[in-house]
Every structure is written in C-alpha cells, then in structure tokens.
Fold each of these.
Amino acid sequence: MSRSLFFTFIISLYTAALSAQIIIPESITIARDAYGVPHIYGKTDADAAYGLAWAHAEDDFESIQLNLLPGRGLAGSVQGKEGVLFDYGLKFTGLDTTVPKLYQTDISADFKKVLNGYVQGLNAFALKFPERILHKDLFPVTEIDILH
C-alpha cells in the first residue's frame, strides 16, 4: 500500500470515528409530565436526539416505520397497493438518489451528529422490541433513511 493511500485510509477512519459518537443511554433522562409530554435531558444534542427517538417510538413506533418503509422500497410489502404508490413516488421524484448525495455535501457535521443520535435511539428501540417491527428488513435504519 502506498504511503498516500495509507494516509488517506487513516484520515478516513479518523473522520468516521469523529462523526460516530458513543451515546450512553443511562445518561439520558426522559421525564413525562402529567399530559404525557416527554421532556428529554442529555449531555449533548445527540443524547437528546437519542431520547427523542426513544420517546417517539414509545408513542407511535408503527407510524415511524410506515414513514420509513418507502425509503427502502418496502411500503408495498407491508401496505399492499397503497404502499406501492409511496415506493414508486419516492423513486419517481429521485429522492432515493438525491438525498444520499446531498447528505454528503449539504448537511453540517453538527446536524449529522444529531441525526446519528436519533438513529441510534430508534435502532435501540427496535432491538429491544423486535416483535413491534413491521418488516424484517427495515432495521437498522440509517441517517439517510430518516431524511427520506
């Protein structure tokens, strides 16, 4: 391996490590008030996003999944003909290719950290409650899935 290729590889690994953060769920507090509204406390914005994803999933995991399915082209397999329209619509508009490109160029590093926190929270919920997953190929989700 040439030195420049090795250097590029090391920089890529370092950049990936910086963008992925370790979230400790035990350090996040979700307190619901008398009306059931979640108040989420964490040390970072990514921690709060993790807690937000968990609270969203507690409240309506099915709707979250129904919104994620077309991004993977899976809505038809869960919702039948109605779902196929959503799968087709996403392909027709080109969002399936535009969103990943724009994620790389137009999303700030800070916002990527928040998205990553949300994704980790949603995936953790799915892992804990696999019986609530609507389609076996939906999880784990990615930041791109959330943006679709």
Note: Residues 76 and 100 are 22 Å apart (CA to CA).
Amino acid sequence: VARSFEEAQEALHIARALSQEEGVAPFSELGVLHWLYHLPAAVAEDNVYLRHVRALASYDDERDTDLLNTLEAYLDTGGSLVEAAEMLYVHRNTLLHRIERIQELTQLDLRNPQQRLNLTVALKHFHLRS
C-alpha cells in the first residue's frame, strides 16, 4: 500500500509539473518521466540540451518572448507546424520565425530526430525541476 501511495504521489506531481490538467496520470505509463523525476541534479547539470533549455528560458525572461513554449509546442506536436501554431494561437509564419530564432540561439537543427528527442527530454526535466 505504501509503495502504491508513493507511485500515485509521483504520478500526480509529474502530471502537475507538466501541466496535465485533465485525465488520469497512471504511474505505469510514466516511462522516462519516472527516471527524470529521480535523476540527481548533479547528473542533469552536465546535459548540454538542458543548458539550451535554460538559456531559452532566460532569453524569454529578459526579452518577454515565448520561445520555450514555442519549442515545447513544436516538439509535443511531433514537429507539426499547423498543430503547434494552433496550440499557441499564432500564425504559421510567426511560428516559423520563432523556430528559426530558436535554431539560431541554440545552434541546433530541429529537423534532427536525435536533437529533437534530447530537447524534449530536457524540457520535461526542466519542468519537473522548476
């Protein structure tokens, strides 16, 4: 019972940190998010992708932009410009401009699947620790 309670607490915390407002957050479906939740801070500090995410967050704070949310919407929709633009309530051209700016700032190619995967995981970790 104690273990089930801890798993339920973890699933709830992760769902809240990732802004999941509806539905059920079963522990059995957390997958890599469970690992990220338990990843020691010292290990994460060395991750270049997490540094990119933090740099984008700082850039947004300093310039009142929305690049981090743009990146997350783009990645969460599997790179769909149409879906990401709808999710953000912006025109497709605005989204394209933001994506270009993100690539300039990070020096990453968002068409590269490995870089997209690493950024997605880094974003989730960023939200779990924020």
Note: Residues 50 and 122 are 5 Å apart (CA to CA).
Amino acid sequence: HDWDAVAHVADHVIVLCQGEVVESGSLAEVMNHPQQPYTQGLLASRPPEHGKPVRLPTVQDFLDGVAPETTERSVFEGGTEILSVRGLRKSFKGTAILHDVDFVVHEGETLGLVGASGSGKSTIARCLVGLEQPDGGEITYRGARIDQLSRGQRRAYAREIQYIFQDPFSSLPPRMRVGDLLEEPLRVHGLAGDSAGRLARVAELLAAVGLSPDSALKYPHEFSGGQRQRIGIARALALEPKLLICDESVAALDVSVQAQVLNLLNDLKDRFRFSYLFISHDLAVVERIAHRVAVMYLGQIVELGPRAAIFENPQHSYTRRLLDAVPVADPRIRRDRPLMTDEITSPVWAPGTGPTHVELVEHDPGHFVAVED
C-alpha cells in the first residue's frame, strides 16, 4: 500500500479495487498519467512533499469528483506547557532503553516523535500512561509530578491522557459490542450521568468519528481496519482527554484510509482543542501532522525543533540519514542512497551500560541538536 516504495522498486504497476484490476501499466504511465479516479485518489492520498493542506484528498473525493483542498493549515503559535519530561530513564532487566530524555508538549500542539524501531519511542508513551514505570527522571503534567499525585489526582490524570494504539485489530476486546466498550470508560469514571446519558454519549462519539449509531450494536470483527481505528479513536475521546498519544496509529492502514484517519485526527483536534504526541516511523505523515519534531536515536533525542527546521534544515547526521532514506512517490526521482559502511550500533546495551549522554545545543531559535564527536 506504500506508493513511495512502489515508485522506488517497481517497473510495472497493477491497481486493484474490490478484487478487480482497474488500471495496469508501466510505473511511469500509472503514476504520472493515472486514468481511473480510484488510482488518482490513491496517489493523491499520500501527504504531499510540499504544502500542508487543511485536508488531504481521499479516494472517495476523486470518485465523487470533489476538488482537492488548497487552503494551508495555520502555523502553531505556541501555548501553555501541558506536559514536561525531564531526564527520563528506563531499563528492562538491566538493559538500558531510555537515557535522560527531555521534551515538552504545549497545549494545542502536535509533537512528532520519530526514530528507528528500538529507539525507545513506544517506551516513552507507555511510561506516560503508567503501563511502564520509569527508573528515573520526572514526568510533570500541568505543573504536578505524576509520581507524586494522590489517588484522586491520578484518576483525573488517567482521564486526561489517552492512548490510541497501533493495531486496530488487537486493541479492541473482540467479545464486547462497540457500544459497550465505548460506554465502559464513561461508567468507570462516572461520566455522562445514567444509562440513557451514556448511550447518548456513545452515539455522539460514533458520530464524531464518522460512524453510524447502529455501529454500537456490532462487534469489532464486523468492521474494516480503518473503521476499527475510528472506534479506537472514539474510545480515546470518550473521557474528553487533553493529550492524545498516537502510537503508530496509522501505520497499519492503506494510504486511502490513512488519509481519512489523518483528516479525522486534525478535525477532532481543531474541534476539541487537545494536544498530540504523535509517534511514527513514517516521516511523510509526521511532516503532515506535526508542529514540532523530536528525533530519537539509541534511546536519546538527538534533534528537536519546528517541523520546517527538521525537514528542511536537518543538522544531526542521523536525522539526515532518516530523511535520505525516505522513498519518493515519483518514478522520475531515483535517489542515490549511499549504503552505510560502518557498523550499525545496536540499541541493546549490556546491563549497567549505555550510549554516551548527548547534550542538545540550540542551533536556531527552538531548534536543538545533539553535539556529535
């Protein structure tokens, strides 16, 4: 489903829609001169390399003849600091995973967190919601350290920070109807009043993510992957959170559904005014949705700054390698990607050891880069 990868390796392309071939031809013919609206929609669904439209075009837009959105998204103007992470450390069975990680998230901001598998991105997210206990450092939410919260404060904290998981198939209880799994957090936290009030709230949540009210009576296996991810988003929204953690939440989706979910996330953010910590290995998606970007390497942040600074003026060698490795969905562009000749550093360290601690230095206003040897 990745057009960028297809453009890099394929000679001939076959486009399938509902089990039928709708277009076939050479890579250049299909990608430069697509004839079918379905193919045109697939190609347009990827986040554009240039420009940040308010809404990504979808396959359905092309099938319906809807003109693509051209209005650019507004630039983030800054807001109150809502979450602060300082010196976060985490090890598993003596093996160090996170090494003194620092970052902040502001109200209304989307912070993108990128890096290779094993760099510690998901471990950070799990520490934030209490699925893992850090070994050291401080996590502060609205000025209060979360390890010093009272039981009542922790309950409120659990409401305000919600998690959208990567896999829409395994993250939903298969034996619960959708309405029950959306109603459960409302009942546990005593929200939306009585049973009738909770049912009304469930209907509102389903409508917010573009699903019909009768979806509440169905089981998760009766939905497509994109629809299940919408249900996961609705469940995260049930408690009216202030910060949503999206952990590779569009990685399992094809480009057309991915565009729909990204549009939905942005629409909901504008509507409900919450913040995102958006974890992904897809740099095109991160560039599309994030205001600032933190680049992780071997359990540490090596570059942090505004989206434009990271993507247009990367300073750390690892950031440049990440960007150089991104395929481009254009058969006319075949980047010469030099192979790494040095030994690839393992993210796994012996107990009691770890990488050399890096210091971030401000290169430009708001753009911090780790000092390299």
Note: The CA atoms of residues 15 and 108 lie 39 Å apart.
